[in-house]
Amino acid sequence: MYCHNINTGIDCSDNNSDNNSDNNVNLDMIIKDLYSISEIQENIKAILENDKSKLNKIQNIQQNISSMEDHSLVDIKEAKQYNISYQKMLFLGIAGIIMFSPIGGILPLIFL
């Protein structure tokens, strides 16, 4: 910065060195701030990548749960079909035992 006033003849060369030191201090502060901003950006990037991996894990878990639910539904439907068959077989088995066992021969005498 040139600071010579033609009308007054005042030379500002002493002020110029002060301005240079102020500019250097300001530039150092700007450089430090830029490094801080860079660090902050790197930290944010790391956080976002960590969150992305967590979201991917959650998504995988949800897909696994959905798949397990589908398999469970099929298993429940099969179990329901077999349960009905077992109930019928159990009921008919008990009825057959009662009718064809010695107890089955005594029961009609009790109720008559």
Describe the structure.
The protein is mainly alpha-helical. It has one domain (13-111). Helix content is 88%, strand content 0%. Helix 1 (13-100) packs across helix 2 (102-111). The model has no long low-confidence stretch (mean pLDDT 78).
Secondary structure blueprint with pairings:
Blueprint: H1 13-100, H2 102-111
Structural class: mainly alpha
How much of the sequence is in beta strands?
under 5%
Count of structural domains: 1
Nearest-angstrom radius of gyration?
Answer: 46 Å
Choose one word for the global shape: rod-shaped
User: If you average the pLDDT, what whole number results?
Assistant: 78
**Measured distance between first and last alpha carbons:** 128 Å
Percentage of residues assigned to helices:
over 70%
Profile the largest sheet: none
Number of helices: 2
Low-confidence stretches: none
Order of helices and strands: HH
Counted beta strands: 0
Question: What can be said about this structure in brief?
Answer:
The mean pLDDT is 78.
